[in-house]
């Protein structure tokens, strides 16, 4: 695996640590900013809205730059946002900081995944994306508990300063570890040509599945801290340890999905969504049983955000591996964060702390439903019987199929195979 992929993972680790830090410091930030826990939860939503709306526009502007300078510029913007968060004295200032960091993080994800695809062979792109996405999983395993620990012992502002330092380290690693690559479109493609792929209705359905996968997980994850302390009965000091356990589950799940993403792209998502439905519903029922709560929370970690490598591989095969497609995909992923965290906050205020878990289970069921058209297309692909004779023209399928690599996956269309 190229060294560049691991450097990109470090940058993603810094971005994700900042994205998730609010979830681990909700009580402290609520007290320090004079806000309620649901209002602090909306900071997660604000980060996601900024990613969804602002990220693609920033990516389009950065397409005029080569990837490496673009990544370094994004680190600068991200650093400014985190410094503002560390010095915020009001909810409004913190909200502004989260918007700045959200826009930069989204553009970074799009450019980074595009670079990851550019430096690896097509047949191992799914695995390479899985390695890069380990930055996301390690953000939950190490980054979030680290920030939660620092915030709990030195104050929540110290957590944002620590993330700022991590950002500088990642930027230095990128400067020395990412090679010089040509800017998007320099090899003959244009922005308009890359954007034409969005005319495919199937691409929008594929993108919506990613939204539902992440929305199901974040409806619960955004409120793990208060659920664990107020329903499951854990002390606040135990939350960082529990989040480490959750993060370890995501690393394991991501590694498995990364290895299966190229060959079992759709079946991985079917199984993952089905299991996540069970884990979320089980957590809602047994949230007041400490041991069961921990096991079910780790189950969510195994099959929730860990679907990222399979989702990215499916999107790239349906569309293309360019930065615009990857950034728009990231926007749909963060739309899931918006749906999960915002509706979760509404449910908490109206129905209590268990309700976001039931909400997540319902969204996961919708995710499964979004895969039915593709599974139906697969079931309608009837293989030609082997008779020893060359089939006549009417017997051939309308679209030539490549050998199926997934018992639940569609054969790649010719345009996907060359994307």
Helix content: over 70%
* The CATH topology: Growth Hormone, Chain: A
Which architecture does the CATH hierarchy give at level 2?
Up-down Bundle
Largest sheet: none
| Total number of distinct structural domains | 1
Percent of sequence in beta strands: under 5%
Span of the ends, CA to CA: 21 Å
* Helix/strand class: mainly alpha
Biased composition (Low complexity): 382-404
Subcellular location: Cell membrane
Region (Disordered): 382-419
Organism: Streptomyces solicavernae
Written overview of the protein:
By secondary structure, the chain is mainly α. It has one domain (3-179, 197-378): MFS general substrate transporter like domains (Growth Hormone, Chain: A, Up-down Bundle), CATH 1.20.1250.20. It is 75% helix and 0% strand. The chain has 17 helices and no strands. The protein has helices spanning 3-24, 26-33, 37-62, 67-86, 91-118, 125-154, 156-177, 191-195, 201-221, 224-230, 239-260, 265-286, 290-303, 308-318, 323-351, 355-379, 414-417. Residues 4-379 form the Major facilitator superfamily (MFS) profile domain. Residues 382-419 are annotated as: Disordered. It is a multi-pass membrane protein. It is found in: Cell membrane.
How are the secondary structure elements laid out?
Blueprint (H helix, E strand, L loop, with lengths): L2 H22 L1 H8 L3 H26 L4 H20 L4 H28 L6 H30 L1 H22 L13 H5 L5 H21 L2 H7 L8 H22 L4 H22 L3 H14 L4 H11 L4 H29 L3 H25 L34 H4 L2
